[in-house]
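Tokens in:
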């Protein structure tokens, strides 16, 4: 199987429970909740995405012929020894492309594998760190993992039900849009009211990182 990747880059993980960790980000093209085209945003299930995942023309992106080629590119991007290699598979929706061969190849290359998924597809069972970001209006089938990261506010989200899902961390992340200040206040208010949750901030944006 070949893999279509929008971009691949070395940075610091900017949000969630792994924030601050050096990581190779692999952003796959394609999503099952929005086409990525602005003309389709108003009718999409997920309407607030701020990420370009269309095409393979980003920095480090391309079409990789097989899992070994993608893993080799991630190793080259890491620019260091094998110790503490960390890769984040994201998108779009990475589970549209992630398969046994890729997970095996990344593990063979010494990577600890994290994924950021909308949870509408089952996550590969051998991935080491599972972050699910549910979207209102979709059906979340992956209800267990390491962190649940809910962008807020999202009308229609059943916060109480999500508190019963099997995650180590329940995170609320303010939506970054024209109402950012109000969204931050709403997120903080939710955490103060429901202490099962913790506040997650997009520190990469504060630091000017990718």
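Residues out:
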């Amino acid at each position: 199987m070949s893999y279509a990747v929008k971009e691949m880059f070395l940075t610091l993980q900017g949000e969630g429970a792994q924030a601050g960790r050096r990581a190779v980000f692999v952003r796959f093209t394609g999503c099952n909740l929005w086409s990525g085209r602005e003309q389709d945003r108003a009718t999409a299930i997920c309407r607030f995405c701020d990420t370009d995942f269309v095409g393979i023309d980003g920095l480090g992106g391309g079409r990789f012929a097989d899992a070994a080629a993608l893993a080799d590119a991630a190793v080259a991007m890491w620019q260091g020894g094998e110790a503490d290699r960390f890769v984040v598979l994201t998108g779009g929706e990475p589970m549209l492309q992630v398969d046994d061969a890729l997970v095996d190849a990344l593990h063979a290359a010494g990577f600890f594998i994290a994924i950021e998924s909308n949870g509408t597809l089952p996550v590969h069972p051998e991935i080491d760190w599972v972050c699910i970001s549910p979207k209102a209006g979709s059906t979340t089938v992956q209800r267990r993992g390491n962190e649940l990261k809910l962008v807020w506010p999202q009308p229609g989200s059943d916060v109480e039900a999500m508190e019963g899902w099997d995650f180590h961390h329940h995170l609320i992340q303010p939506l970054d849009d024209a109402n950012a200040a109000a969204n931050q206040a709403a997120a903080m208010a939710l955490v103060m009211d429901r202490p099962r949750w913790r506040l997650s901030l997009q520190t990469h944006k504060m630091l000017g990182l990718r």
